[in-house]
Structure formats: structure tokens, C-alpha cells
Design brief:
The complex is a heterodimer of chains A (about 80) and B (about 140). Chain A is built from 2 helices and 3 strands, in the order βββαα. Chain A has helices at about 45-60, 65-75, and strands at about 10-15, 20-25, 30-35. Chain A has a 3-stranded antiparallel beta sheet, with no helix packed on it. With about 140 residues, chain B is mainly beta. Chain B has 1 helix and 11 strands. In chain B, the strands form 2 sheets. In chain B, strands 3, 4, 5, 6, 7, 8, 9, 10 and 11 form a 9-stranded antiparallel beta sheet that branches. In chain B, strands 1-2 form a two-stranded antiparallel ribbon. In chain B, a hairpin with a 6-residue loop joins strand 5 (about 45-50) and strand 6. The chains are: A alpha+beta (about 80), B mainly beta (about 140).
């Protein structure tokens, strides 16, 4: 990992198309501005990690009572809310 | 074309229905070809099965069936990836996580799957709204 120290108002360039700017430092929070091509996705790391974890759990094989699951699934959407 | 599904066994599929996820699914970037298979007869739940990896499959469902006002905005990079100009041709599904007690199944509302049906392109997107639940109860009745 490349580690740099920046002050409020300073920026970091990544390649030709990405600029990360430190906009404001307020106590423990840092306000970061990111300029990047619209084809790139930018995410808060903890949200991305949560989704990855949910995906992993969802795809893992589990011993589930298929009869119960089947009943729940068939009923789903058929009941009036 | 025959493929092997860890959950359904050997399945005959129509290759014309294969959906390309150029970035794979989050956490599984290597597997890009998927298709929807019926999971439980007479129910809206399907299995999004990876064509090239029998054990990679997700149970999916239409989120609007239990959150009718589910909405979000598509960002530029998502629209580009899906080659879509608007939400008009896009189908939305969410991944369902089924624990040992199936009644406690949850859906990830923060990471929906978007599919451009006419181009057979798919992408899992990350929504920024922190109020969205990654573990939204599917079979539970929420308190009003």
C-alpha cells in the first residue's frame, strides 16, 4: 500500500484520470472528493465488504429443509398483504 | 447445452439465455456467465446459476414483491456497464440468503442484480443508501 500524508486542500493523482482530494478534516472525519471516469465504480469499503459477505453466505451450500422452504416460497406473493 | 448445477444436478439449458456479467458478481469476479433457472415450482424464486461453476448459484427474487416502493437511481457507470439509457429495459432481482431456518431468509436490498434483458447483460450494483438492508426479511411481515 502506498502511504502519503496530505493536508486539507491537497490532492493525489492516480494515473491520468483519477484525482482524490482532501476537502476537509473535521475531528475524526475526512471529507474526500473523488474525480474519476464515470465508467469506474466508487464505493465505501465497508458497504462493498458487506455485500461481498452476503453474497458469499448466499452462495454457500447449506442443509436446509427443502419441504419447508418450498412451502414458504410457493406461498410467497400469493397472500394479500 | 448441458450444465451441472450443484443444487439442481445436470440441467439442459438454452445457451441463448445466458446472461453475461462482465464484472461477475461481487466477490466472485471470475465467473461471468449466468442464467436464471426455476428453483421452486410455482413460486417467484429462481436460481441464478453460474454456467462455468456448478457450485456458484444464488437464489433470487423480485424485490418489488415484498418492498413495492423499492427504488434507487442508476449511476453513470452502472448504466454504461449495462448499456442502458434508462431503467426501462432493466429487470431487478435481489439475492436471497437462506439460513438453517428457512423462515428467516433475507434478501440483500443494498446489492441488487440488474439485468438488461435485451442485451443479456447483468451487473450487481452497490447502492449508497445506508438505510437499505443487506438482510431484509423475505418471509416476515414487517410491523407497520
Amino acid at each position: 500500500m502506498l502511504i502519503l500524508t496530505r493536508k486539507s486542500g491537497e490532492s493525489i493523482n492516480i494515473g491520468d484520470d483519477i484525482i482524490i482530494s482532501i476537502l476537509e478534516v473535521n475531528g475524526k472525519s475526512v471529507r474526500v472528493g473523488i474525480e474519476a471516469p464515470s465508467s469506474m465504480s466508487i464505493h465505501r469499503e465497508e458497504i462493498y465488504a458487506m455485500i461481498k459477505e452476503q453474497n458469499r453466505k448466499a452462495s454457500a451450500w447449506k442443509e436446509v429443509n427443502m419441504e419447508t422452504l418450498g412451502k414458504l416460497m410457493k406461498k410467497f406473493g400469493k397472500e394479500k398483504p | 447445452m448441458k450444465i451441472v448445477s450443484g443444487r439442481l444436478g445436470e440441467v439442459d439449458i438454452d445457451p441463448a439465455k445466458i446472461i453475461m456479467f462482465p464484472e461477475g458478481v461481487i466477490g466472485f469476479p471470475k465467473y461471468k456467465r449466468f442464467l436464471f433457472l426455476p428453483f421452486v415450482e410455482d413460486s417467484p424464486f429462481e436460481l441464478l446459476q453460474a454456467v462455468d461453476h456448478g457450485n456458484l448459484a444464488f437464489i433470487t427474487v423480485d424485490p418489488f414483491m415484498f418492498v413495492p416502493d423499492y427504488k434507487f437511481e442508476l449511476e453513470d457507470h452502472d448504466m454504461l456497464a449495462l448499456q442502458a439509457l434508462s431503467m426501462d429495459n432493466i429487470t431487478v432481482k435481489v439475492i436471497v440468503n437462506i439460513p438453517e431456518d428457512p423462515a428467516k431468509a433475507t434478501a440483500n436490498m443494498q446489492g441488487p442484480l440488474l439485468i438488461n434483458e435485451s442485451r443479456l447483460l447483468g451487473k450487481q450494483i452497490v447502492l449508497h443508501d445506508k438505510a437499505l438492508d443487506t438482510k431484509h426479511g423475505v418471509f416476515e411481515r414487517p410491523a407497520l
